[in-house]
Amino acid sequence: MSEVEAATRQVRSFCRFCAAMCGIVVTVDGDTVRDVRGDPEHPYSRGYTCPKGRSLGVWHHHPNRLDTPLLGRGADRRAVDWDVALDDLAARISTIRTEHGADAVGMYMATAMSFDALGGRTAHKLFASLGSRSRYTAVTIDTPCRPIVADLMSGHAGLMPCLDEATAGLTIFVGFNPVVSHGHTTALPDPVNRVRALSAAPRELWVIDPRRSETARLASRHLAPRPGSDHALFAHLVRELLGPDGGADHAYLATHAVGVDALARAVAGYDRDRAIAETGLDGAEIDELLAAIRRHRRVAAMTGTGTTMSRTATATEWLLWCLGVVTGSYEQPGGLWFNPGFQRCFDRRTLRPSPPVRVEMPGPPSRPDLPGFYGEYPCAALVDEIEAGNLRGLIVIGGNPASALPGGARVDAALASLDLLAVIDVVETDTTAYATHLLPSTGQLERADVPDYVEQYYPGVASHYTPAVVAPVADRRPVWWITASLAQRLGTAVLPGGVDPDVTDEDTLLADICNRGRVPFDELRSAPTAIEAEAVVRGWVHEQVLPDGRWRLAPAELVTELARLAVPDEAPSELPLRLVPRRLVRTMNSQLRGVAAPGGRVEEPFVLVHPDDAAQHGVTDGAPIMVRSAHGATTGVARVDGAIRPGVVSIPHGFVSTRVASLLSGEDTDAFTGMVRQSGVPVAIEPAPDA
Length: 691
Ligand SMILES: Nc1nc2c(c(=O)[nH]1)N[C@H]1C(S)=C(S)[C@@H](COP(=O)(O)OP(=O)(O)OC[C@H]3O[C@@H](n4cnc5c(=O)[nH]c(N)nc54)[C@H](O)[C@@H]3O)O[C@H]1N2
Ligand SMILES: Nc1nc2c(c(=O)[nH]1)N[C@H]1C(S)=C(S)[C@@H](COP(=O)(O)OP(=O)(O)OC[C@H]3O[C@@H](n4cnc5c(=O)[nH]c(N)nc54)[C@H](O)[C@@H]3O)O[C@H]1N2
Ligand code: SF4
Ligand SMILES: [Mo]
Known about the structure:
Blueprint: H1 3-6, E1 9-14, E2 23-29, E3 32-38, H2 51-54, H3 56-60, E4 70-71, E5 78-79, H4 82-100, E6 105-109, H5 117-130, E7 135-137, H6 145-154, E8 161-162, E9 170-174, H7 178-181, H8 191-199, E10 204-208, E11 221-223, H9 230-242, H10 250-256, E12 257-258, H11 260-267, H12 272-279, H13 283-296, E13 300-303, H14 305-308, H15 313-326, E14 337-338, E15 360-362, E16 371-373, H16 382-387, E17 393-397, H17 401-404, H18 409-417, E18 420-425, E19 437-440, E20 461-463, H19 479-489, H20 506-513, H21 521-526, E21 531-534, H22 540-545, E22 551-552, H23 556-564, E23 577-582, E24 607-609, H24 611-617, E25 624-629, E26 633-640, E27 648-652, E28 681-687
Helix pairs in contact: 4-19, 5-19, 6-15, 9-11, 9-12, 9-13, 9-15
Bound molecules: ligand MGD (2 copies), iron/sulfur cluster and molybdenum atom (MO).
The site of molybdenum atom (MO) has 2 residues, from loops.
């Protein structure tokens, strides 16, 4: 490299930690990342970054980055070259398949693979080539209710509702805290300004959250219901809107929905008294929300993980979509629209009408009580499958199951017992400790990329090409190369046209993904930052997706699901409080623990408790606290906080000392989706002895 090339340079890229996908400008000196700043030219993030994005350089140079393939566990672990690692891995996979069948080798693919277009695709193809049913992804530990409800109501599981920022009137966020999370399956880069804009009169933003969250503090109104009671609030709102002079858009319903009467019958029992009794809200608050909906006539309502992780996830999601349909809000100004994707272009494709049933398969042999969806088994079953000896080999790509899955020590023991645990990651994690094969991948700054399906999260129809900001050092390889090279050894090809991983370059592969997009790949590649093709696209779901142009308002499964919730969810008296999740701004699940952005600080996973509960249980601010559930216990540091509803305890996930997963269990699932309950879990608190 010449001296000129080696001098400091600036490279524009986008951050791939979270759904916001902010534009960044990275200052690079040779292989060293000196600085990461927001790109003022980016159409959505407009110069904004959060502390995670600004810590990308620290993360990139993390002392625990993986540099070379490692074989073996514990004292047997040794560095090897790629041929040795991949030959051994392929041989072990083949042996397990021969001895125990195809399902004995599974895959867990999670968060980081959503942000690696090529790696995500080749990993899925590698898995498909194995002919195994043991596929697990973060979807079933995060939001299974959303694709299922979308599928049941519209016939298309991949609908991504988006805010319509230009026309927003009334916005409702339920269990959704974008000021910290920057979005869930929708992107809110620069969230404080976006939330303020949504709250500025005559607009209104209502936040429904048992905690006065960072978003609630900026919103027009905040309602703090009991955890897991959201379905009762929305059932009541739908009931009232459908009633005489209720405010429903009956002309729209007559032409664009089926099942109106069945929906009305399903919610008939949710009168005002029942809504008050179940949610614990004031009647006046509920009336005011109903009045706001009638005033604005249209509504943009979105859930986050606060509800999708609760026992009432599916019913809440359904009733929220019903609220949108009953008010005629979808694909109309003031309501939500659906991002068809810049590359995916769902609006320009002929979509196969899907049958009015969810795609389902039986759960795995050790958990016949659970359902399988869309070719996946629920994460709740992963540990059972290992313990039962059904799953003997697991390939983990871009995920940290030891941290993310419920069960704590039980998960550790299961992972340690596997004959084969291949982990493809960028750093050492809770999971890599148990790996038999540890394969170092390139990180987000070391590969060219475009947003793949996550492009549907953008606030508009947009895409963004980034080159590799720095060349990979040491023996790090892209996930597409690792999976393609492994597939080759297993006798299949996962790259288009069966190309040789050793002679292919990333841009050629990305061009293949982008070849049916809104603009030609070369144009995307030469654009300085993200390209927005259209701000909002309305109408395609009504015209191309809905069967006969009509929403199915009352699928029988969802009606049954709501009826199931009529049985109250009683907690044992010795576990009087309810656990809820929350995310922290400086960490991304288990990622960036202990990492600070330049000039910033390291995140702490405080256990939030209301002052009344703290007083009653002898807990003091800043002191060690013990939290117990029916499944286990963890300790932490208490933060006494009036912003949380009495009776509720909030703990973030992804940490080691405070391990919230120890309080959870794969046995405690929602029967309909197989989702692990991570919100509304009964717990007790007490002071813990000083560490
Ligand atoms: N900084 C940061 N950003 C992230 C992540 C991260 O770890 N850190 N993780 C990313 C991932 S993987 C995801 S899935 C998204 C999730 O994004 P969000 O869904 O926005 O997640 P949270 O920020 O945890 O917000 C959930 C809120 O729900 C509330 N809540 C809990 N239980 C209930 C309930 O029963 N009812 C109601 N109404 N509210 C409830 C909680 O108090 C909390 O404020 O964030 C993504 N972005
Ligand atoms: N109690 C509780 N549990 C939860 C949640 C909760 O709210 N409460 N949230 C759940 C949710 S929503 C989710 S999505 C899951 C998250 O589950 P996971 O996705 O399994 O967890 P992460 O910690 O995000 O793991 C991502 C991994 O990808 C690695 N990585 C980062 N960049 C790259 C890359 O470029 N290439 C590769 N190959 N690897 C990379 C990181 O080092 C990290 O190990 O956790 C779930 N668990
Ligand atoms: S919000 Fe933060 S983590 Fe998410 S993309 Fe932007 S800079 Fe990255
Ligand atoms: Mo997630």
